[in-house]
Design a protein that fits this description.
- The complex is a heterodimer of chains A (156) and B (214).
- With 156 residues, chain A is α/β, with parallel strands linked by helices.
- Chain A contains four helices and seven strands.
- In chain A, 25% of the residues lie in helices and 19% in strands.
- The termini of chain A are close together.
- With 214 residues, chain B is mainly alpha-helical.
- Chain B folds into two domains: 60 residues, no CATH class; 142 residues, no CATH class.
- Chain B is 55% helix and 4% strand.
- Chain B has ten helices and two strands, in the order H-E-H-E-H-H-H-H-H-H-H-H.
- Chain B starts with a helix and ends with a helix.
- The chains are: A alpha/beta (156), B mainly alpha (214).
- Chains A and B meet through helix 1, helix 2, helix 3 and strand 7 of A and helix 1, helix 2, helix 7, helix 8 and helix 10 of B.
């Protein structure tokens, strides 16, 4: 993301007032196999979902499931904000949800395979307690259940 | 996520990127750039211990504006003040339809109102500005009026943006933003809605105002 001095004053102030978790330590799990043998999923906080799904609302702690073979045309973004220009996502969804790049990496043998499902959350969360306590562990369980080795997290 | 926040969250693996907000993987249509960011991200898997925080360097991207200009930074021109929003939206829909035919994809859809009914949406927004008790037939039952207004405005913004991509391919993000906020009747309407909703005593309505324009 850009440095603070490249943001407009209102956006800078808005971002700086977001409450942020402070973690003194970091859990770290070394990978057990090469990427070329791994199953990869995307989890995004870009507020993307299938067109027929219920749109996210501000502060919504729930998540949406996106089949990994869903065409880009089937996705819309309900994380709307005047803090960023959504035209980039309209032009090319790979700027936030790099599905075509990952498919190319699978085809080229650099990634083992894609997981059957990807997951999406709403962005710009001010209170993350429900996500931490309920929906994120739920999604982590789903990812483990689907044998996912590597998760790519993308924000907006 | 900005660098300052990432440092506090202290995740096991992360990549700082210099791109404007909304473009974490790089610029639209630049698959080589997107792949380079991904390559750096996946390279964090090779580290035996962490946290691993890498930086993607791109001086040109770092010099771009990181966030779009706001309505308060754009002066409305005379044509925007005189234009009829319903007529303008109908014209935009033609360009939007051409774009949709060419790409097969659109971000329009949050309001659940089809673009063929956007003239009705415009009439509703005009009625709301005159009297905030206004409502629109066809509003989804699970979408309260303030959220419906926000989604309608977003659908119009997206339709205009996709129309503009069709008529002005290659236009920069700041120029497109300046056009939408300063040279269209939609820019006028967004300001009016912001002012009316900001004057509400209902915090949920005020919150929508904040998200429409600053």
């Amino acid at each position: 993301m850009p440095s603070l001095n490249k943001l407009s004053e209102s956006t800078r102030n808005s971002i700086l007032t977001l409450p942020v978790d402070v973690n003194e330590s970091t859990p770290f799990t070394p990978v057990k196999k090469p990427l070329s043998a791994s199953r990869v999923a995307i989890v995004t906080s870009a507020g993307l979902h299938l067109r027929e799904d219920r749109p996210f609302t501000a502060g919504d702690p729930t998540y949406r499931v996106i089949p990994s073979d869903a065409p880009a045309a089937s996705l819309v973004q309900s994380h709307t904000s005047i803090g960023f220009d959504r035209t980039g996502v309209l032009e090319d969804i790979n700027v936030v949800f790099p599905i075509n790049r990952l498919r190319e990496m699978v085809a080229g043998g650099r990634i083992g395979e894609l997981a059957p499902h990807f997951y999406s959350f709403m962005g710009a969360q001010r209170d993350t307690s429900a996500i931490k306590e309920r929906t994120a562990p739920e999604v982590a369980g789903l990812l483990l259940g689907e044998g996912v080795d590597v998760v790519l997290l993308t924000p907006t | 996520m900005i660098r300052e926040h990432t440092a506090k969250v202290n995740p096991p693996r992360a990549v700082y990127v210099p791109f404007p907000l909304g473009l974490p993987l790089g610029h639209p249509g630049n698959s080589a750039e997107q792949q380079a960011v991904l390559d750096l991200a996946f390279s964090t898997l090779d580290a035996p211990s962490g946290p691993v925080l890498l930086e993607y360097h791109d001086e040109a991207a770092a010099n771009e504006d990181g966030s779009p200009m706001q309505a308060s930074e754009v002066d409305l021109d005379d044509e925007a003040r005189k234009a009829d929003l319903a007529t303008e939206a109908t014209l935009m829909r033609r360009y939007w339809e051409a774009r949709l035919a060419a790409t097969g994809r659109t971000g329009v859809g949050l309001s659940k109102i089809p673009p063929q009914r956007f003239r009705g949406v415009v009439r509703f927004l005009e009625a709301y500005v005159a009297d905030p008790s206004a409502d629109m037939g066809g509003r989804p039952a699970d979408m309260p009026v303030p959220l419906f207004i926000r989604n309608c405005v977003e659908d119009l913004r997206v339709m205009y943006a996709e129309a503009r991509l069709q008529t002005h391919p290659g236009e920069s993000s700041p120029d497109r933003q300046r056009w939408l906020l300063g040279s269209t009747a939609l820019g006028v309407m967004i300001r009016k809605l912001r002012d009316v909703m900001d004057a509400s005593d209902d915090p949920k309505v005020k919150a929508v105002a904040f998200g429409l324009a600053r």
